[in-house]
Hints:
single chain, mainly alpha, Four Helix Bundle (Hemerythrin (Met), subunit A), 2 domains
Amino acid sequence: MAAKNATAAATKKTVAAAPAARTPKKVLTEEDLLKSPEKDYMNEAQLAFFKQRLVDLRQQLLHNADDTGQHLRENEITTDPSDRATLEEEYTLELRTRDRERKLLKKVEKSIKLIEEGSYGFCEETGEPIGIPRLLARPTATLSLEAQERRERVQKLYGD
């Protein structure tokens, strides 16, 4: 009987401790990120927020690519030349969009890798923080606003 009571007491302690161990960390919102002090820049919670956002974006891009593949495999037979031209134009536009998304997917993968390396959120050229507002608008940004503007001015002056 004493052994049974000891086992029951141990089980109660384990069950009581289990919910505390499973309590998830607070998930940050965009408002939380914007209100956070500069000293907390790219802390663990912020990195987790951006990683989740990038993973979600990657999943969406891959889903769009699958949908496009299925859509293009569907052969719609049209005898009217104008309908056929409209259909081909839609395919061309969809392929152009997927090409842009393919390039974005590479940037997303690079950003996820930067998070894992610990250098996400810092400018590739200057090493300065890119800034939360810019990363919220463009999570794949690798340059600070100033560095990006400088690069665009040079491209405008000298071309690509």
